[in-house]
Amino acid sequence: MTAWKKVVAGGIGLGTLLIPASAMAAEAGVGAEHRLLTLAVFGAIIAITLYITYWAATHTHSTAEFYAAGRSVSGMQNGWAIAGDYLSAASFLGIAGLISLYGYDGFMYSVGFLVAYITVLLVIAEPCRNIGKYTLGDILAFRNNPKAAKTVAALSTITVSTFYLIAQMVGGGVLIKTLVGIDYEVSVAVVGVLMLSYVVFGGMKATTWVQIVKAVLLVLASLLLVLFVWAPYGFSLPGFLQGVVGDTKVQAQVAKLLGDSAANMTPEQLGQRFLEPGLLLKNPLDQLSLGLALVLGTAGLPHILMRFFTVPTAQEARKSVIWAMGIIGGFYVLTLFLGMGAATLVGATKIMALDKGGNMAAPLLAQFVGGGPDSLLGNFFLAFVAAVAFATIVAVVAGLVLASASAMAHDIYVGVIRGNHATPAEQVKAARIASVIVGVISIILGILSKGQNVAHLVGLAFAVAASSNLPAVVLTLYWKRCNTTGVVLGMVVGALSAISLVMVSPNMTYPLKVKADTQKVIDAAPAKLEKLQVSLLGAASHPADQAVVQKEITQVEADVARARSDLEKVGHQTTSLVGLEKPLIELKNPGIISIPLGFLMVILGSLLTRDQRAEEMWDELYVRQNTGIHAEGASSL
Amino acid sequence: MNKSHVNWTAIDADPRFRALHRKKARFLWGLMIFSLAYYFLLPVMAAYFRDLFDTRVWGPINVGLLFALSEFAVAWVIAVIYARRANREFDTIAQAIANDAHTIGS
């Protein structure tokens, strides 16, 4: 019980997907007879994205075209693309799932994702557009020692993107396996190959348009679902929520979450409790820490920063954030209805039967509103939502690979190794080769991470971005005294402290704890099964009741089987990856420590050394970021 | 456009640029601090002011839900306020400076 709660609580990512293969067979997912339909829907969406790639490839020759789509993307288009980058499967499937299982607390997650864009809008977007070229490294190299700044920026970019990437790859693999039944390894390879074809042939232009198409599909699919869910209540908010409060499935879920303390509560109170905080998030400090990483980390995510180089001017960059905030915020308001709708119409039990983390809430809701698991329309809806989620993962991964590849090719190879002396043709070739390298590595990492709990990797990506990239960028842009030593020190310490704090946190697997938890499940099973067998006999004359009990028995057996396999996996280990028997700190999110540390180190390093170039370049940097004089122009007007 | 012709130090010292810098700095950091404070009110209240958050105001809708929804509204309002001011005021000043970039300080 506590084991899965831990998993769920830690997860904002799709990575929470730990699906017992046995549980998905008949219950839901796509039945064998509808598999062809599912493949057809997937195929149609993939075909659209490949056509976009083909079109984009004919327009991608120069470096500016490959990395920045020729700086010809409009503010509105870029806004949709940012939303596409941001509304990863984690938010679409993950947040809807958390709301369906935990109500209010799930919704609280989504707020931080929107507020994060205020930081992007006010502090980052326009200055970066005005002084930047293709990468985070370009911004930091403006006044700092170019080689040193580009090296740390590239390392940090690759680190952040890789964490994010693995979570997406694993999520994508599990999603396809669950819904279509293709092997995990094959699924990961499919995601990888598709994403690589977008990036290598179509560069930023293909990636941008795939993001736009996918974001539009995602919003349309969600609107449609919300329409179905909300219409029966005449689009009244109190009416809809009254329906949630009065739902027996919701009440049962709350009673289950509260355990003993629910004993004296009326059904009405239990239902109302679903709309109150505290069912998922227990540690306020952890929440603040996560909130800080979200709100400051987004502005430091390399694949988001990179989007601002695709628009022609700082004004368009501003416009794109406004559009993105409208789309992202509107979408998160919809997740309230998606999650609550899934909680009442599908129910937590069924959602968790398919995935303990709740990630299948939205697909199952789609299946339900279409007419249920046996109907053609229901399965078409399910396939459509699943295909959109799949497109989401591929597109987000493409953006991440592009960011990593640009760090490798533009910052390290061209900037550091070749000292900025490379012909345009060489640069584009380097970018394509780097994309293939990053892509192949990500496929391998995705396959190696099979079955791992990678949920905390998304949180870690945000934490590293907030502790390493953000302090360096903000202080380079706004503090005259900031210099190379500070930037290098701050980025290294910020990233390392965030990573090491997670390595000693409860996010890691602690064999002793796993043993204790699994043993508890195994020990409790015989008594449970015996009780169920008795009630099975008692229900002999009621086939319906019998089926319910039979299902419970299957569930218990599945739990035991999983516990046994978990126990086997742990083997004779007694310590975690870094040799600890139990966590050193109770904090799951390192942000509250590592972010201030990152800022502090940039300041300290800058104050302790003097860097003539950094100070001489300040006037130029400050004037340029505020006026847009000499900003990189649009290349393909 | 020859990039070497711009005297950055002179522009930085230009009164119009100084005024732009002052206005922007005050406005941006003010909005930033307000939005962060408002955002962190949500987890803090959810953790320490449960009684208030659980108070029902409209059918099953409680203060907590309204507050969470208000976070969306506040974020959008901040974005719109910033965009309007930037479009009307900051862009105009920046454009005027950019137009004179090659003559300031020469």
Description:
Chain A is mainly α. Chain A has a domain at 15-450: Sodium/glucose cotransporter, CATH 1.20.1730.10. Chain A contains 27 helices and no strands. In chain A, helix 5 (75-86) crosses helix 10 (184-230), helix 9 packs antiparallel against helix 19 (376-417) and helix 10 crosses helix 16 (314-345). The radius of gyration of chain A is 25 Å and the shape is globular. Chain A starts with a helix and ends in a 10-residue tail after the last helix. In chain A, 61% of the residues are buried. Mean pLDDT of chain A is 84; it is low at 1-28. Chain B has 106 residues and is mainly α. Chain B has one domain (15-99). Chain B has a two-stranded antiparallel sheet. In chain B, strand 1 (56-58) and strand 2 (61-62) form a beta hairpin. Chain B starts with 7 loop residues before the first helix and ends in a 7-residue tail after the last helix. The mean pLDDT of chain B is 87.
Biggest beta-sheet profile of chain B: 2 strands, antiparallel
Number of helices of chain B: 4
> Which geometry of chain A do the CA atoms define?
globular
Helix content of chain B: over 70%
Oligomeric state of this protein: heterodimer
N-end to C-end Cα span of chain A: 59 Å
Share of β-strand residues of chain B: under 5%
Question: Which helices and strands appear, and what pairs or packs with what?
Answer:
The complex is a heterodimer of chains A (637) and B (106).
Chain A: H1 2-10, H2 21-24, H3 35-57, H4 63-68, H5 75-86, H6 89-102, H7 104-131, H8 136-141, H9 146-180, H10 184-230, H11 237-245, H12 248-258, H13 267-273, H14 284-297, H15 302-305, H16 314-345, H17 348-354, H18 361-369, H19 376-417, H20 424-448, H21 455-478, H22 484-503, H23 511-538, H24 543-570, H25 591-608, H26 612-616, H27 618-627
Chain B: H1 8-13, H2 15-48, H3 50-54, E1 56-58, E2 61-62, H4 63-99
Antiparallel strand pairs in B: 1-2
